[in-house]
Amino acid sequence: MSSHDTLLIVDFGSQVTQLIARRLRELNVYCEIHPYQNVTDAVLAEIAPKAVIFSGGPDSVTRAGSPRPPAKVYELGVPILGICYGQQVMMQDLGGRVEGGKISGGGGTAEFGRAYVTPAGPLPLLDGWFSDGDEQVWMSHGDHVAALAPGFEVYGTSPNAPYAITADPARNFYAVQFHPEVHHTPRGAKLYENFVRMAGFAGDWTMAGYREQAIAAIRAQVGDKRVICGLSGGVDSSVAAILIHEAIGDQLTCVFVDHGLLRKNEAEEVVAMFRDNYNIPLIAADESELFLGELDGQSDPETKRKIIGRLFIDVFQKYAGEIEGAEFLAQGTLYPDVIESVSFSGGPSVTIKSHHNVGGLPEKMGLKLVEPLRELFKDEVRALGRELGLPQSFIGRHPFPGPGLAIRCPGEITRPKLEILREADAVFIDQIRKHGLYDEIWQAYAAILPVRTVGVMGDGRTYDYACALRAVTSVDGMTADYYPFSHDFLGETATRIINEVAGINRVTYDITSKPPGTIEWE
Ligand code: XMP
């Protein structure tokens, strides 16, 4: 899509490869992660990287058939930085020797956790390091380098890693045993900064620049054809829509489907935001009768999800069919989704929940995809949203799942239950906002439980629903922890919900982390 310089990260399967990309994006350097097996000579030629980083990985280079980059990468004449397994790969490929540790059966010592590196010679990669003595780093390796490849020298040592920092400055090859990308290497970001400076990156990957490039690319891709975009009210689809609108104006039509499972006032707010601020052609479709009708009597979580997914496609197709000449479907796919779809292991993982989006639509409808956020991380999408003038209230919104309140109403869904749920949820979110906690929380919501419990209000007996409040912190939704509200906050919120929401007489707070729980109840 773009004309900026690219740093290629060859992924050997480390758990923290994405963090390398984060560190680089923070330096305004554009990078792409590619699993090692996809990095062929042709891919190298196409990407034409200005520098390359080899990630860590779980394998052992001492094992025959272990992951390697193509030999061509060493002939590109660009700087290479190898990290942990990446260091070992470089040494082995370039004529050094790696010895197995405990894990791969070699008997040497493995090293996991905090370590301190002592300098062993000046190196521009280490500018800004060692000013306060030894540097703390994070080690996580079973194998270790036993003999350096020709041309390499040692520039830093740690008690268990005599080759902690190695380099062949003449060829601009650098290889470290530790992980500079993780938080526990406090000055790791400085290493990346030095590396990209030495590689000659301009640090010009900004959202303003991205906006210009993305607009040009959308125009080139779409020409004079029409695009449709499903709006969910979330940040990703909103930013995608506004960006595309800026590129092609009224050739874009957005479709917002109200499936009757939205939060209080949500449909009105989303529609108003788009109509008032952007003047984007928008079809606001109230299909709540259809969805709630088909969900009637269903209580199995996967059945509910499948029904919603199927109806969503039907409805979207119906409205899209009314837009003459639509050839493209816009989606707010983000970079982490792209990386996951070419995951290192490549193996199918267990389906915990069938998340629904408009996947499957393009083939069915013969549409081509426009995905202008494919290169971005979530926080970059937010930055782009700001750049495009999206109101902060929209940019900072908590994610909301496609199936909506259906998965926050375990068991059977009824209209009265949804009404109660909307009110309880609104009070909870109001409390969070009033206490200034909204931006500290990844997601917060109320779920209505499929039980009624006995209570006493005034002098009377009540027999009403119980609700569960859920609030979690997370960086990507993959793992999460419950938010540690004060007891005062929880007490005040429970009292408000019971006083203000007819139909609820008991409030619980869910303190399950993910894993073992999931963020949504279904
Ligand atoms: P779980 O419940 O799997 O949720 O821990 C992780 C994140 O994904 C959201 N979620 C969904 N988003 N369609 C979506 O667009 C779905 O079907 C869906 N299910 C869960 C959830 O809100 C959380 O942010």
TrEMBL record:
Its EC number is 6.3.5.2. Pfam families: GATase, GMP_synt_C, NAD_synthase. It is an enzyme of class 6 (ligase). One of its GO terms (cellular component) is cytosol. Pathway: Purine metabolism; GMP biosynthesis; GMP from XMP (L-Gln route): step 1/1. It catalyses: XMP + L-glutamine + ATP + H2O = GMP + L-glutamate + AMP + diphosphate + 2 H(+). The active site is at residues 84, 179, 181. SUPFAM superfamilies: Adenine nucleotide alpha hydrolases-like (SSF52402), Class I glutamine amidotransferase-like (SSF52317), GMP synthetase C-terminal dimerisation domain (SSF54810). InterPro entries: Class_I_gatase-like, GATASE, GMP_synth_C, GMP_synth_GATase, GMP_synthase, GMPS_ATP_PPase_dom, NAD/GMP_synthase, Rossmann-like_a/b/a_fold. Signal peptide: none annotated. It comes from the Bacteria. Residues 205-397 form the GMPS ATP-PPase domain. Keywords: ATP-binding, Glutamine amidotransferase, GMP biosynthesis, Ligase, Nucleotide-binding, Purine biosynthesis. One of its GO terms (molecular function) is ATP binding. ATP binds at residues 232-238. Catalyzes the synthesis of GMP from XMP. Homodimer. This is GMP synthase [glutamine-hydrolyzing]. It comes from Candidatus Rhodobacter oscarellae.
